[in-house]
Write a structure and sequence with these properties.
Layout: H1 2-17, E1 22-33, E2 38-44, H2 47-50, E3 53-56, E4 63-71, E5 92-99, E6 103-109, E7 126-127, E8 135-136, E9 148-151, E10 161-162, H3 170-175, H4 177-180, E11 187-195, E12 202-205, E13 211-214, E14 223-224, E15 230-231, E16 237-241, E17 244-248
Amino acid sequence: MKKIFTLIAGVMIAASASATTPYKALYVVAEVSPAGAGIVYLDAKNDEDAAYVLDKSEDYGETAFIKIVGGENGGGDEGEADGFGGNRGTYEVKVYAEPEEGYEFVCLAGVQRDQEYAYADCFKPFTGSGQSDRVYDWNLYANVADGILININNVEHAQDGDSDGNPVNRDGILADPDTYFKAEPDTKVIVVYKEEGAEYPKLVEGTDGVLHVVMSADENAPVYNVVGQQVSGASKGIMIQNGRKYIVK
């Protein structure tokens, strides 16, 4: 029995070692909103990826960019390769950002909006740079001054190569940027700030543990159901708080 187990383990290790990693030449831009509210910087997620950075911003500013040959992480659930970042097809960079005095961080969004940011607009940050230790973090108020990882994969960007050299490996992509890097950014990251104390949309964690968008800073405002009855935060169904509707399942 022991010999059989050893043989199976050996086959699994060999299969794991021969796994092919896809690569993409990704061009990412980050932008502060509103202008003058803070600073931002983009960097590789770890030392391995840092070796495959073609170019990036050298200083903090209101805009930043990075061009990197990123390797795919993950191998789990399909269908989540969107702004939240799924368990499959993730290509990560680290975002550092810090508000100016008088402003506070809201979230890292995938779209630019004039006023209202919904939870679905925001990237889902995570910790851990390796496939086995990544943990997705629902706390969008993570300390971006220390750097947080987000998935910058653009699902419309086809695979450029892989670790088996089909049609080219990571070094080959980096050596031929005119062929593999797009002229326009694959992904834009909006670093959303709000003025401290201002009635500006922000994400608030309710008593149900779900983040909601509210139009004021009153996180303790009463909650109502659709017929106007005040209810507890533990209630389920369509809830209304601060004039905003959300669903508690």
